[in-house]
Amino acid sequence: MRILVAEDDAVTRKRLEGLLMADGHDVLVAADGAQAWSAYQEQRPQLVVSDWMMPELDGPELVRRIRGAQGDDYAYVLLLTSKSQAQDLVEGIEAGADDFLSKPFDPVVLRARLRAGQRIVELQRDLARRNAELGHANERMARDLAAAAEIQRSLLPVEMPRFTTVEFAWCFRPSAELAGDLLNVVPLDAGHAAFYALDVSGQGVPAALLAVSVSRTLVADPNQSTLLMRKDHVDARPRLAPPGEVARRLNERFARRRRQGEQFSLFYGVLDLRSCEIRYVSAGHPGSVLVRPSEPPGLLDATGPAIGVESGVRFAERTLALKPGERLYVCSDGLRGARNEAGAAFGTDQLARALDGDRERPLQESLDRLLAQVEDWTGTPGFQDDVSGLALRATGDGA
Fold first, then answer.
1. Does the predicted model carry a pTM greater than 0.85?
2. 46: exposed, middle or buried (C-beta count within 10 Å: 0-12, 13-18, 19+)?
3. What topology does CATH give the domain 157-394?
4. Which one of 118, 176, 276, 292 is most buried, by most CB atoms within 10 A?
5. In the chain, which stretches have pLDDT less than 70?
6. Three-state DSSP class for 288?
């Protein structure tokens, strides 16, 4: 091990050098504190044995400089001193010394102290190595999370489909890199579109993986059977799956895995693009708000439990006919469940009032303002839970 000896007394310095070299150490010597400081900067020894009283720079000041300059390469410092007053020892400890040895020193005690110092240096070196490995692992994880978040964002609408009778808008704000919320609008055929919003129980990577897995099943392909469109065996024409059937089949799949905690709320609707009639199920997804131009806002109740809670559930379907100017907001629980500093939740009623107050604003602006209001309510930037919202407004242009 490389050891720096800083001692202004030539006899003591020579004795220390001989003892340490006999033990197989690489020894650097300095006749005063200034030389010792230069040698430390150039050679970075792992251990320093320094006299307390030296010309140019005393031992405590040398220690202070070493502590101020070191990074992960920790140096163990042993101060040689004839001082024994408590205040002197406190000064040395506060400067950063690791240990003390009284002069004249006993070679046996010196070797024991240095072995202890060597163990500490090796532990510090191992800790630095492990920290570096953890740092690299964290960087890889951060890159992986960023890539996963990008994949998840790719499942969100890049641009909402344009219809003549209805417009859509959405908001999405994960509490971390990944979210357990997802939403989308899926054109089914010339006269229908599906839309959904899901909110997975829990947060982080497991919730995000489940959300992505579910969203991959909520697709439509006229050329093959999917969860949303069933291909008729007689005339090969696709048939739209009723919302209740979609929820039931999802529940059958995930109820079998409920021990894994794979549960999520789901609002799934099929929109008739000509009449603006919506057939929907709300599986454990309460708090959807219907905003009318001249009436108080209404709340849509859940029509069944969350997906994956229990098997054998039949989900009731509801029908909602949107009139021109009417809006439907499907919001995740992270919005109404957001809490302020006093622990009070934003709540469904306040959510409805906020949306009703912006009924004349553009659809997307009303969602953006809702996020801002909820964030103001919490009193802190960001959200503790994932938040998302999907909104649609009947325009009446196709009537």
1. no
2. buried
3. Phosphatase 2c; domain 1 (3.60.40)
4. 276
5. 84-86, 88, 232-236, 257-261, 397-399
6. strand
